[in-house]
Design goal:
Elements: H1 15-23, H2 25-34, H3 45-54, H4 59-81, H5 87-107, H6 109-114, H7 123-126, H8 133-151, H9 154-160, E1 165-169, E2 173-177, E3 180-184, E4 188-191, E5 197-203, H10 209-226, E6 233-239, E7 244-249, H11 252-270, E8 273-275, E9 280-281, H12 302-309, H13 313-317
Parallel strand pairs: 5-6
Antiparallel strand pairs: 1-4, 2-3, 4-5, 6-7, 8-9
Bound molecules: iron/sulfur cluster.
Length: 319
Amino acid sequence: MAYVRREYPQWSWSFSRQQAFESCRRMYYYQYYGSHNGWERNAPPLAAAAYRLKQLTNLYTALGDAVHQAAQLAVERLGLQGRLMDAGEVEEFIRRKMRSVWQWSVGGREQFFLRPKQVPMLHEFYYGKGPGQELLDRINDRITRCAQGLAGSVTLKELADSTSELLACEQFDTFVLHHTQVYAVPDVMYRTSGGRLVIVDWKTGRQEDHNLEQVALYGLYAHEKHNIPPEGITVRLEYLETGSCVEHSLNGEMLAEVREQAQASMAAMLAYLDDVDLNKAKPLRAFPLTDNRSQCLRCNFLELCAGELQVDLEAVSAR
Ligand code: SF4
């Protein structure tokens, strides 16, 4: 498909967009507006920098990505070869992915500046000298636990039961809500022999209230897009590090609540636009820095806020 240049980004909504908006308005601006067209050769320096910084990852996110790729591979192997990957195979796969991210981050700074979308770069190396031993130990431990959690997950066991029908795995899709395109990428979706639709989200972090909101949104997607009655949908959060699994059966009331929350979130975001039809954002100054400054040292866009925050980046990198 030919590249069509757009002066402004397309308006859409997603759960992660809502999280960025709630976390820090300035971060939201850089992520969804300031970085737009920053990939172009003659992009203004601020857009180019925001686009580059938007691509940064960190050890926790990189681990989450590697685990999701391992899960996808495990589901595919199950379909093709009819066998479950064991914890050792899963761990080896995750470690290989993590090693690659690490190696690029250590030696690929120049390439990252040239091709930020293609070359992985850890925040820990971009802004500093790399992670400390304590963090590395925590990540190493989490890799092993997540591999064991994935290999022994309820979902893979149920999928191994040939009476379950796999419907989607990491499949990107959208649906329309309040005239807005909403992104939904359920990790796994399948139908049980009893006819229930199960929507699964793999989690590598701890249990948080908003996890249920996210997976319930995927339930709304299944209902709106595929006309599945809410009562026929189970959403499941698989917490791989602890090996625990939380399930909820949906109902109409829950979906109405998800719909309402999404609408309220969309309305709050639209209030930051100068032109709703164009999706043209208000100027940068309309997007304040967060009051919760403790998150700034971990933020991808720290470089762009350092002046206003009076943070000395040299001191940060020397830590
Ligand atoms: S560095 Fe802080 S203020 Fe700036 S975008 Fe990030 S979280 Fe927001």
